[in-house]
Amino acid sequence: MVKSMSAKCYLVVMLGVVAVLAGPGDFGKTTSAAAAEEQIKGMPNRIVLIGGAVGGDWAALAEGLGQVYRKAFLKTTVIVEPGKDGPNAVLANKGEEDLLLSQSLTTSLACEGKEPYKAKMDKIRAVAMVRKNQNFSFLVLKKTGLKSISEIKTKKFPLRVSVNRRGSTMEILARTVFEVYGITYKDIEQWGGKVHFQSFRPSFELMDDGKLDTVIGNPPAPAAHFVQASTKHDLTLLPLDDKAIKEVAAKLDMLPAVIPKGAYDFLDRDVPTVGTTLLLITNANKPQEEIYHLTKVLCENVDYLRNVHATMRSMSTAELPLVGRIPLHPGAIKFYQEKGLLK
Fold first, then answer.
1. What sign results for the dihedral spanned by CA atoms 225, 280, 10, 303?
2. Which domains does the chain have, with CATH numbers?
């Protein structure tokens, strides 16, 4: 993976982005001078950190993490590579890389061996929760007249909806939400609607062509696709009711959440929903001392990491151990207990 030209280009571009964001001396300020020497006791000569698609928010965070680790562990080569939600969990279970970014929803499904995974991945361990604003979003054209998801069933509304790629975590989430409201894809089509299995870009192209009413996903707000679509269409977000929030959260290891009205210009109220978090994960067999030091440096640089991307603004030191049903790595547990963040 490291030898590929795309990975090299990614590393150079993202390094420049983070350098511009931070400026000299803005990161690693709280990392102790002895941290670089501590690698002799527990740090390897090489760390590979897997983020997300080139140019995205995960990529910015991954390179930001790479920067603070390079600053802290001068004798360790820190390599940042692109990755993808879903496959990242598989890589973590295999232990082929050191640190990876993964949604809590995806990670939970992998650990429990639920769709789209065929077997339990019991070697995945969490290091930290780094963001919690990836909230379920039911984006709909206002001209449908829909005020709630329950109305789709009571009115037998012929909804034209895109739920993302079949078998993706976004699609599984969309399907689960429909199920708790007593709605199936078959119902939608019997009522004269249509279910599309498209990612965001082709979905909004369908909306532009007048062939789609609703796009479902869980992007961090504000989502660029949503903002752009709102310049062409009159949109709103439908809320989840309390019962649905509890049921979906329990089924998919999610949290009650709110999309604030300030997230998008087209909102005039807060929108209750459920949210998944973004985790930093690793393998259970990674040495305790290594993960302890990596967790420590992460915690010391939260202020810097908040500024690597707009979606990271709410990153919180106190919330780092809040990883849901995913087991924490013993090295992370040791640090959080010493810090008083975990009992």
1. positive
2. 5-132+277-339 (3.40.190.10), 137-239 (3.40.190.10)
Contact 88, 102 (CB under 8 A): yes
Q: How many CB atoms lie within 10 A of CB 112?
A: 14
- Sorted by sequence, the CB contacts under 8 Å of residue 298 that are 6+ apart come out as 65, 68, 127, 128, 130, 280, 305, 320
**Rounded CA gap, 29 and 8, in Å?**
27
The mean pLDDT of 171-190, rounded to a whole number, is: 98
Per-residue confidence at 283, pLDDT binned at 50, 70, 90?
very high
Backbone angles phi and psi of 275, in degrees to 5: -135, 150
Counting DSSP H helices and E strands in the chain, the numbers are: 14, 11
CB 196 within 8 A of CB 159: no
Q: Kindly report, residue by residue over 290-301, the tens digit of the pLDDT.
A: 999 999 999 999
CA–CA separation, 89 and 312 (whole Å): 21
Q: What is the pTM of this model?
A: 0.83
Q: How far apart are CA 305 and CA 297, in angstroms?
A: 11
**Cβ-contact 69, 76 below 8 angstroms:** yes
Q: Is the dihedral of CA 213, 216, 222, 226 positive or negative?
A: negative
Pairing relation of β-strands 46-50 and 194-196? unpaired
For 168-202, b where at least 16 C-beta lie within 10 A, e where not — what string?
Answer: bbbbbbbbbbbebbebebebbeeeebbbbbbebee
